[in-house]
Design a protein that fits this description.
The chain is of the alpha+beta class and 326 residues long. Helix content is 13%, strand content 20%. It is globular and about 45 Å long. The structure holds the ligand Nc1nc2c(c(=O)[nH]1)N[C@H]1C(S)=C(S)[C@@H](COP(=O)(O)O)O[C@H]1N2 and molybdenum atom.
């Protein structure tokens, strides 16, 4: 997160490859027709936006896509072109730069065992495929604001995190949900940087986890999630800075202790537990008042709770003496 050599909107042309996987692009073309994709910056639409994502087209989940769109979440800006969202990533397991998408394809997604444990009635082990097939999928068009002050707008497919919490049957003593990523240093070069506190960890309060906006994401742009965006299963909590939205989760642990997240462990003066977006509170080393929308030449003002206050502000109303915005 601290290392930055190229600006956020830089896209190496030679990294783009033709799409080799066939997908039903019905929804995609509908949106193009409706003019909701970024069409004003000279980026031509269609094939050029697509990259090969490396997720099996014929997998057991392909029949679940595309999922119906939940109209509750309305964007104030165009969707970011798919090619940018899938080629400009933060995924430190594969390096501390943005160009990780090829490397991330080495992550084996089948089988992917999930564990739900800690303060629950009975620990559960099941595969990501089993879980996803149990859940009704929906699409949500959401903003995502990285703490580095760039942003994207993405059609994510997934289900409410609340559905997983209900399935886990947490005990009344459970106050937090800790989520843990994979630990595969033989596969993920970033995990051989042993001074970093692997595996990646994030946490939410149970109240945040069961809030309607907290989403487990298994797809994007009407297709299964590409490796580099956190396949097979990642969190999206769009009112918080991007680092809270942990990718490629393997374990959900219910606990009475507030988890210390990956970035807090590295730099506790710069990154905290809550990490709610607030343009008025600068990062110790840069302003958070505006953001660069990837794929656009515009900087736009950042909004409190990334514009999602109506859904989440109540969660923080009674909290005093907490660093809610770092
Ligand atoms: N496991 C894991 N999850 C992660 C990260 C990471 O490095 N590892 N980076 C975070 C950060 S800083 C951001 S901004 C988003 C980026 O998601 P995207 O690449 O899908 O846009 O993922 C978040 N989740
Ligand atoms: Mo980020």
């Amino acid at each position: 997160m601290l290392v930055k050599t190229t600006p956020g909107w830089f896209l190496p042309e030679n990294e783009a490859t033709p799409e080799i996987i066939f997908w039903n692009r019905r929804d995609f073309s509908k949106r193009v027709a409706a003019g909701t994709l970024l069409g004003t910056t000279g980026i031509s639409l269609g094939k050029k936006l697509c990259v090969s994502t490396g997720y099996a087209a014929e997998g057991p989940l392909s029949n679940l896509f595309p999922a119906p769109t939940n109209d509750l979440y309305v964007l104030d800006r165009p969707l970011t072109p798919e090619r940018l969202v899938t080629t400009y990533n933060n995924f430190f397991e594969f390096g501390s730069h943005k160009n990780v998408w090829k490397s991330a394809m080495r992550l084996p997604l089948q089988p992917w065992q999930l564990r739900l444990d800690g303060l629950v009635e009975k620990p559960i082990t099941l595969s990501a495929d089993e879980l996803i097939q149990k859940m009704g999928l929906e699409e949500r068009l959401l903003r995502h604001r990285c703490v580095e002050a760039w942003s994207i707008a993405v059609p994510w497919t997934g289900f409410p995190l609340k559905s997983l919490v209900d399935m886990a049957r947490p005990l009344s003593g459970a106050k937090y949900l800790k989520m843990t990523g994979f630990d595969l240093p033989d596969i993920a070069p970033g995990q051989r940087q042993t001074w970093l506190p692997w595996p990646y960890v994030e946490g939410l309060t149970i109240n945040e986890a069961v809030n309607e906006m907290s989403m487990l994401v298994v797809g994007a742009y009407g297709k299964p999630l590409p490796h580099q965006n956190g396949a097979p299963l990642r969190l999206i909590v769009p009112w918080k800075y991007g680092f809270k939205s942990i990718k490629s989760i393997q374990q959900f642990t219910f606990t009475d202790e507030r988890p210390v997240n990956f970035w807090q462990e590295i730099a506790s003066k710069e990154y905290g537990f809550w990490a709610n977006v607030n343009p008025q509170i600068p990062h110790p080393r840069w302003s958070q008042s505006t953001e660069k929308m990837l794929g656009s030449n515009e900087r736009v003002p950042t909004q409190l709770y990334n514009g999602y206050g109506e859904f989440v502000a109540h969660l923080y109303a009674d909290l005093k003496n907490e660093s809610l915005y770092m």
